[in-house]
Amino acid sequence: MSQEPRAFPAPAGVVYNTTMARADAALALGALYVSASRREARVGGICVSNAGLDAAIFCDIVARFYTGQSRTPSSNAVLPIGFAAASPPTSAPMVETVVAKKREDGAPRYVRSIHRIADTGQPEALLRNAVTFSAETVVILSAPATALARSVELAGTIGQYKQRVKRVMIVDAGGASQDAAALSALVAALPVPVIFCGHEIGDALSLPLSRVENGFTWASANPVLDACRASGESTIALNDVAALYYAIHPASGFFTVSDSGPTRRLVVESAKTEECAAALVALATSKPSAAPARGG
Amino acid sequence: MIVTGKSLSRRTVLKGLGTTIALPFLDAMTPAFAHAAASTGPIRLAWFYVPNGIDMRHWTPAADGTLGTLPAILSPLEPIKDEILVLSNLTTHWGRPLQDGAGDHGRALGSYMTGAQVFKTAGADLKLGISADQIAAEAIGRQTRLPSLEVGLEEARQAGNCDSGYSCAYAYNLAWKTETQPLPPISDPRALFERLFGSDANEPAAARARRIAMRQSILDEVLGTTNRLKSALGGTDRRKLDEYLTSLREIEEQVDRAAAEGTVIEPGIDKPFGVPIEFPDYFRLMTDMMVLAFKADVTRISTMIVGREGSVRAYPEIGVNDGHHPLTHHQGNMDMLAKVRQINELHARLFAEFLIKMKNTPEGDSNLLDQSMIVYGSGLSDGNVHTHDQLPTVLAGRGGGFVAPGRHIIYQRETPVTNLFLTMLHRVGVRPEHVGDSTGRLPGISLS
User: Fold this and answer.
1) Considering the domain boundaries, does residue A233 fall inside one?
2) Is residue A1 one of the residues assigned to a domain?
3) How far is residue B275's CA from residue B267's CA, in Å, rounded to a whole number?
4) Is B387's CB within 8 Å of A4's CB?
5) Is A7 within the bounds of a domain?
6) Which residue, A90, A177, B156, B207, is most buried by CB atoms nearer than 10 A?
7) What is the arithmetic mean of pLDDT over A124-153?
8) What is the ipTM of this complex?
9) pLDDT per residue over B14-58, tens digit each?
C-alpha cells in the first residue's frame, strides 16, 4: 500500500460527545479549538446528544468563532456537528441565550451554518466516521451513552477502535449512565482502555465564574463566555475540561489513573490541584493561535 | 387472456441452435386468478453512476417536500418527476482521503456501492468490499438467467494506475462480487446483446461468425419455437410477444449499424469497437437493452456506469469539446461551469428517456418503472474540490408500491448512501445486516 510520507505525526484527534448543558462543556469545547489552533489536538468530531437543536447550533457557533470561519465553509473542510435530539428536544438555557443573541441590526450575534436538523450530522455515522481519520484518537463521552454505543455496534467500528482509538473517557457529570443499558453495552464492547472521570474531579477542580471571566479579556463578545454567564453557575466544576486536558496532555503530571478495581478512574494529583485548575482555565479561556502565514 | 389452471413459467425461453431468448412477462405467466397480486411481482434494482460530480447549485431543489419546478440539471426529469425522489445529504465517507492522500476519483466510484475503504494500490492486490447489487445478486440472482448485469459506456480498464496510486479497477468497476473481484461492465453493444439475448456460450464460434456475416438475426434461429409458442398463447400475449421480438430485432439492427459505424474511432477517446459515434445514441442503445432485459426478466439487477470516475470524455454532440474531468476543475471559471452543467443536463436527459421507456413498458397491470427502484447518482458532489458528502442522488420508480415518489427528502448530513441501498435490498427480501458502512435503513422513502 503506497502512502504519502508524513513529515510529522498528526496530533491526537478528540471526539467529543456532549449534551452541551453545562458551562464546563462550553469551556471544554473552546479549549478543544484552542488546542487545535496550537496543533496540540485535532477536532475529530463533535456530537451533541440528548439536547435540542440550539445545542448543536451553539457548537457550530463556537467552531466558527474559534476557527475564524465567518462564512459557511466547504463541506470538505469541516465535519458537521452530530445531533441526536432529546425527546422532547430541549436545550439548556445557556445555549439558547447565545443562539438568540442579536446584533444591533437584528442579525444573529454569532455566525452559524446550522439552521435545521438537516444541517447537522447523523450521530451514529458521525461518531463512527470520526474515529477513522487519525492514527490516534481519544473519545470523550459526556452525554448519555446511547449514540456512542450505537456507533460502536456498527459493522467495522470495533476494528477502527482497535486500530486508532487510544482511550475512551467517560465523564459522569455528562449523564453517561442515564442510559444504563447503553453504557454497559458500550463498556463491554470497547476494545480499548476506558477511563471514568467521576464527580470528584469536578469537586476538586471547581472555580468561581469570575475567574473564568478574567481569562476572556481578548474578545469583547465570546460565545463560550456568554454561555458561562448564561448558565447561572456561580461556580464551575471543570469535569469535561479535565477530561479533555488529560486526553491531550496525558503526561502533564496533573492526573493519574487508578488501575485498581473493575474500572479505571481519573484522579487529580492532590498536591497539584491548584496548579492543575490554573492550567485548565488558562487553556479554556485562551485566545486561539492565529493560523500560520502561508509558507510560514 | 385465456384463463387456465396452468401458467407458463416466467423462465420459459425460445430456443434455437446455440441461441436462447428470454421472454417478456406474458399474461400466460400469471397464475389463474392471481392478478390482484400483480403488484407483488418481481422488483428490478438498477444503479446509474455519473462521474466527476455535479454542479450542485443547479441540482438541489430549493425546498424539501413535494417536488416543485425542478432545478436546471434535473429539469429533463420534469415530465416524470412524480416518479422520482430526490434525496439530499447522503455521503460516501470512504471516498474521503482520510489518511490515504490524493486519489478522490478512484475512491469515489470504488466506495460508492461497497461502502468500503478502497485499498490504495495500483497493483494486483486489490481490496474493496462487496457491492450492494452483488449482495442482492448472491441472494436472489438465481431467480433469473443472469444474476446481474453490468453495463458501462467506457471500455473498462482493469489494471494500471488511474488516479494517484489507485488501480484503474477501482475507477472503472461499480460492481464487486467479492472484496477482490470486480465485475467489469460490458461496454460493447454486441457483447451486451449477445449476453442478454444470444447464447454465446453454446453457439459455435464459427456458426456465430457466419450468422453475423450473413446479417442473419438471432430471431431466425428460434423461429420454430416462436411459432410453436405463439400457437399456445392468447391474442393479447401473441401481440405482446410480437412487439417484444420486434423491439429485439430493432435493437439487433442498431447493434449491427453501430458495428459498421464503429470502425471509425476518434483517437484519444476510450471507445470499444462497434460503439455508436454519438454518445446519446450509445446511451440509448445500451439502456434500450437494459429495458428489454428487465422486460424479459433476464435479470432483475443492473448497474450502469455512464462514465468512469475521472472520465475525460468530450461531448461534441452538445458543443462541449473539452474533456469532462478537466472541466470539473473549473476553479470558478463560468465558461467551464456552463459546460459542466451542459454535460450534467445531457446525462439527466438521457436518464429521463430511459425512465420514460420503463414507464411505457407494461408489466401485468403495472409497468416496469413501477416495479423498479433505480438510483441515479455519483460518489462526488463538487468535482472541483472533490467532496464526498451531500451527494447528488435520485431514486426513481415505485418499487412495486413501496416508494412514495414525487418528493425531495433532506437527511442529516453524514447519512451513508449505503443506507439507501440497504433499504432497496430489504424491499426485495434481501436482508443483510449492513451494506458496507450503512448505519440502518433510510427513513421516509415510503409514507407508511
Assistant:
1) yes
2) no
3) 14
4) no
5) no
6) B156
7) 94
8) 0.91
9) 877 667 788 887 878 876 544 444 456 899 999 999 999 999 999
Which of helix, strand or coil describes residue B353?
A: helix
Chain A residues in contact with B120 (beta carbon < 8 A): 1-3
Phi first, then psi, for residue B22 (nearest 5°) are -70, 160
* Sheet of A264-268, strand order: A82-85, A42-51, A13-18, A137-142, A165-171, A194-197, A264-268, A255-258
- Spatial separation of the C-alpha atoms in residues A175 and A292, rounded to whole Å: 38
End-to-end CA distance of chain A: 31
Number of domains composing chain A? 1
Q: Which residue out of A129, A134, A137 would a mutagenesis test of the B interface target, given it has the greatest number of B Cβ atoms within 10 Å?
A: A129
Does the predicted TM-score (pTM) go above 0.80? yes
- Least CB–CB distance from A155: residue in B165, B382, B434: B434
Crossing angle of helices A23-37 and A239-248, rounded to 10°: 20
C-alpha distances (whole Å) from A24 to each of A245, B218, B232 are 13, 77, 81
Number of C-beta neighbours around residue B36 at 10 A: 8
Q: Find the chain B residues whose C-beta atoms sit closer than 8 A to any C-beta of A.
A: 64, 88-89, 91, 93, 98-102, 119-122, 165, 381-382, 385-390, 410-416, 433-434, 437, 439-440
The cell numbers describing A293, all together, are 502565514
List, for residues A171-218, the tens digit of each pLDDT value.
999 999 999 999 999 999 999 999 999 999 999 999 999 999 999 999
Domain that holds residue A111: 13-285
Residue A292 counted as domain residue: no
Query: What is d(CA A243, CA A141) in angstroms, rounded to the nearest whole number?
Result: 9
Intra-chain end-to-end CA distance of chain B, in Å: 34
The grid coordinates listed for B416 are 451513508
Q: A115 — alpha (psi -120 to 50), left (phi > 0) or beta?
A: alpha
Pairing of strands A255-258, A264-268: antiparallel
CB-based contacts of B156, cutoff 8 Å, min separation 6: B172, B173, B184, B185, B187, B305, B308
> CA-to-CA distance for A271 and B202, rounded, in angstroms?
86
| Residue A243's CATH number | 3.90.245.10
* CA gap B219, B200 in Å, rounded: 14
Contact check, Cβ <8 Å, A2/B165: yes
Cell of B161: 494506475
**How many other C-beta atoms are found inside a 10 Å radius of the C-beta of residue A155?**
16
For B385, which of A76, A132, A156 is closest by C-beta distance?
Answer: A76
> Closest Cα partner for A227 from A110, A87, A72?
A110
Report chain B residues whose CB lies below 8 A from the CB of A80: 413-414
In this complex, how many residue pairs, one in chain A and one in chain B, have their CB atoms less than 8 Å apart?
A: 79
As a three-state string, the secondary structure of chain A is: CCCCCCCCCCCCEEEEEECCCCHHHHHHHHHHHHHHHCCCCEEEEEEEEEECHHHHHHHHHHHHHHHCCCCCCCCCCCCCCEEEECCCCCCCHHHHHHHHCECCCCCECCCCCCCCHHHCECHHHHHHHHCCCCCCEEEEEECCCHHHHHHHHCCCHHHHHHHHEEEEEEEHHHCHHHCHHHHHHHHHHCCCCEEEECHHHHHHCEEEHHHHHHHCCCCCCCHHHHHHHHCCCCEEECHHHHHHHHHHCCCCCCEEEECCCCCEEEEECHHHHHHHHHHHHHHHCCCCCCCCCCCC
